Request: fold
Amino acid sequence: MKISPSKAPGEPGADVQEQNPRIAFDEDDEEEDELELELSELESELLSLPLLESLLLSLLESLSELLLSELELSELDEAEDELSELEDDGELDALEVLLEEEELDEVQQHGIHVIGANS
Reply:
């Protein structure tokens, strides 16, 4: 307890805390209660961090999947545009003929190979 050099406890004009030491204890209790409340709030925040981290990771994963599918759709749109251009230019028919010829060649090669393997 702090005693004022000019005023003794109990004298008029002395510090209120010096007159009543219980007030000082009440202030200490209030400060302790505030600190305990802050500590409790911090503990609650710390407990919620793993949940927040999990939610953020899930959101990030969903976002990356969405971006990937958007990229795939963009590539598909480009391929459809190219196919449409080929059709418009008449090149698609020529490519189909080449593809059929290649498939026919493969069938003939496999057929010859199979016949050759059986002999």
In short: The mean pLDDT is 79. Residues 21-89 form the longest helix (69 residues).
